Each structure stands twice: as structure tokens, then as C-alpha cells.
């Protein structure tokens, strides 16, 4: 009697279950960190922390769309990726708005809160990054999720650096610079994901919907991926 999971369909089911489990965990982590960073950012008067918290909220929404798309068709995954790109673009505008506000209403942020919360966010995103690493090449859905996680780590390191800059300069400019950098990172990610989704939509419309062989682990050395 053949093992069910020796077939491609069962391998895909197992892959999707792993993807779903991972996405649920990283969604919860990002939702919790959004509230923590947003409240701390407002209390500390930090543009960088508020911008990073918006990143966390954007990621939580992205992961929600990704959960929906796990079991869907290539076209649905591509549409979900487009929505994610638009979400990233919207939060980029929100982050730039925070920068403009601080230019009009200057404030030296509390570097202690920036450093502490920034380090906590770095640890949280490190966990997310590790969980998503093995899924980064599964498909466009998981690829866009992993891209968000990678960008989060960069943003967290920048926030911690900004806290050090505020401590050394006693001014809000390091915080402002990092806020702008995070907004720019949002923008770049949005452009990347939107470009990928456009390519995948064209493939879907052309009827070219192959399942990437790299996303399906082979159960024996001699079995074809096709």
C-alpha cells in the first residue's frame, strides 16, 4: 500500500499546513508588537518608533492576506500580493506623514524608550525571520511575507541606532532620519511586491500556472518533481 504523502497532492497539503502554522505565529507576534511600539512611540515622541510600529501593523495585515492565499490559486496569490503592495505603499505615506508632523512640531524623543522597545522589536522580528526562512522560496505569497520580515530587522537595527544618535546629539534629527529611511524602505518593498504581483498575474492570465518544484520536498531521490 502506497504512502499517501508520497504523492504531490499530499506533499502540497503538508507544505500548506506548515505555511499556515508559521503565518499564524508571525501574525500574532507582529500584532502584539504594533501595540507595544505604537504606544511607546507616541509616549517617547519618536518618529522612528511610530513608523516601525506602522510597519508591524502593515505586516500583520500582510500575514492575514497571506493566510487567506495559502490554499488559493496562483492568480489569487498574485492578487493578494498586489493588495499587500498597496498596504505597504499606504503605510509608507503614513510614515512620511509622521516625519512632516515632527518637522512642524519638533521634539527630542526619549532615547531610553527608543532603545529598549527597538531591541524588543528586533528580538521579536528575529523569531519571525527564523520561522519564515524555510518558506522564503515557496511561492510569491510566502516570498512577499519573508521580504517584510527581512525589512523589519533592518528597520529595528536603524531604530536602535537612532536611539544612540539622539543620546549623543541631544536632538531629534537622528530619529527623523531613521523615520525617513523606514518610510523609504516601505516604498521600495511596495514597488518590489507590486512588480512581482504584476508578473505573476500575467502568468496566470496566460494560463501558465506551474507549481514551483523547489516548494515541494521530494520523498525519495529517484522521484520526479513533475
TrEMBL record:
UniProtKB keywords: Membrane, Transmembrane, Transmembrane helix
Entry-linked SUPFAM superfamilies: Cation efflux protein transmembrane domain-like (SSF161111)
Gene Ontology biological-process entries: zinc ion transport
Gene Ontology cellular-component annotations: membrane
Protein's membrane topology: Multi-pass membrane protein
Secretion signal, residue range per the UniProt entry: none
Name of this chain's protein: Cation efflux protein
Organism: Rhodanobacter fulvus Jip2
